């Protein structure tokens, strides 16, 4: 019994099964498992009925299944059947005493093969064959011969005219070391038949696929004749194909996979012989061409199988990202087609594929909204087989932002009134950055100004302290800008700056002051003449440049005897008819002095001028003016009279009203109880007056106590 063992080293296998065999046969037993040194060894044996014949089928495919718990694994096991020269023996009728009888026609060609003595392939083992019996004429037309392939060949003179004769040949076969056998061949020459064997078709061209399993039908040849048999006479041996002797069906005998080592199997030319079993000399040959077409069973295999990479947006155009290496298992070394397909964003943009190299195709810009993203694509690899097989390699390229530019802002000028309060908004510094996002900017002031502040996020400039136009009219503020969140590296920042000019607008916040603020004058009037009384001198000490004022008499100018010509007070005495004033008269004039010009608001002050007017007399020769002024160092006294009054809060008024209402209700209730008690006394006179008085007193006290608690 021939034993075939297949060692399958698998870990922790507990169950094994034989699923199927190609070509179908019962030659193999189910696999068995044994444990050896911690490893399970599977053993497949041949059944007792197995009869292997390398000339018929020399290759079997066994599909095995191994089960370990929930883990199931399947795999093929290939079995090649080879000829064993050590087991070849001379057997059959060749080694029998009567020998092998060979019948040939007398018309056989000279040197034609009449019989195959040895199994194909034995010649490689160095077998030596020879005819040991005598072949002397006239009994033999010529010597028969045996070549190294074991073919018994007709004499070179042919067998014409040797019909009905028999030639007995003693043959010796020696092979290996001291191994030999002897046999006998009986060649009977038959006369040429009157009818011939013929094929229905003279030649056939068959095309088959390479994935046919051994034993698959390729073609069937048919010949006319009685009890026809078939055999392949060329090539011999024929390792890929076999033919049924009775039915003429040509089948595959081995796998037909087209690899670089078996390219010759693409086209096989078979020479098939058909002959009658009882008359072997009645034969005919047919040429059968079998073309094996490759089958594309495996898609291309690529390295890498997945590409995920990250590149900065400053990556130059033409930079190589990766090179893809793909092979076709069905046809190693064949040319493959590579195609780049975009998924998001769609359309060819920033990447390109040159042969097998993925490169940067365009500038990668992350400085516009939505431009910096992930490029999802795939490399489609196609082979040239039939059917077409493809492999898709996913590609994900992530573009990261780079902080390339510094933020900048435009110098601006803000104007603010000097009376603006703290936290007043002066304006905003608008920074810009060419990197995205464009507003990722923080603002700071250089030098730490105590008067102004800049909001870190919005860039708003606000006032912190007070301003004085008279002390400082112009401020220059340096604003520093720093970007952030614009680079893959969180520590990468760029900065810029600009100058903000702040102009303080003047606000009229000082009233004019007159010197002196109080004057007392005595003038003598002349009838029908105007007399200059005095000149009011005023100024703003905090703003010496302000000289424009307006003057007006706001009080004490009875009978309109006085007027102002600018800052000069003039007395007008234009009365031409009596009665003329004969007694001195005193006027207390109030002169309002207000600043003039564009500044607002207009502030004012009041100067007091007391004029003692002495009327004209005939004996008066000249008019004189007596001026009495307050000393310049005297300061007018301002007396403020404050009248105190009480104005309660609204909540207090509400509480007081509610309390009064409750008090009135309590008094009404008390009065009602007293009246009810008095009525009861009047209705019950038997109660002593003293007891009634005590009860009333107790009741009154009790009610008073309750009211007090309330």
Automatic annotation (TrEMBL):
<keyword id="KW-0732">Signal</keyword>
<protein>
    <submittedName>
        <fullName>Cadherin-related family member 4 isoform X10</fullName>
    </submittedName>
</protein>
<dbReference type="Pfam" id="PF00028">
    <property type="entry name" value="Cadherin"/>
</dbReference>
<dbReference type="InterPro" id="IPR002126">
    <property type="entry name" value="Cadherin-like_dom"/>
</dbReference>
<keyword id="KW-0812">Transmembrane</keyword>
<feature type="domain" description="Cadherin">
    <location>
        <begin position="408"/>
        <end position="518"/>
    </location>
</feature>
<feature type="domain" description="Cadherin">
    <location>
        <begin position="303"/>
        <end position="409"/>
    </location>
</feature>
<dbReference type="InterPro" id="IPR039808">
    <property type="entry name" value="Cadherin"/>
</dbReference>
<keyword id="KW-1133">Transmembrane helix</keyword>
<keyword id="KW-0106">Calcium</keyword>
<feature type="signal peptide">
    <location>
        <begin position="1"/>
        <end position="18"/>
    </location>
</feature>
<keyword id="KW-0472">Membrane</keyword>
<feature type="transmembrane region" description="Helical">
    <location>
        <begin position="651"/>
        <end position="671"/>
    </location>
</feature>
<dbReference type="InterPro" id="IPR020894">
    <property type="entry name" value="Cadherin_CS"/>
</dbReference>
<dbReference type="InterPro" id="IPR015919">
    <property type="entry name" value="Cadherin-like_sf"/>
</dbReference>
<keyword id="KW-0677">Repeat</keyword>
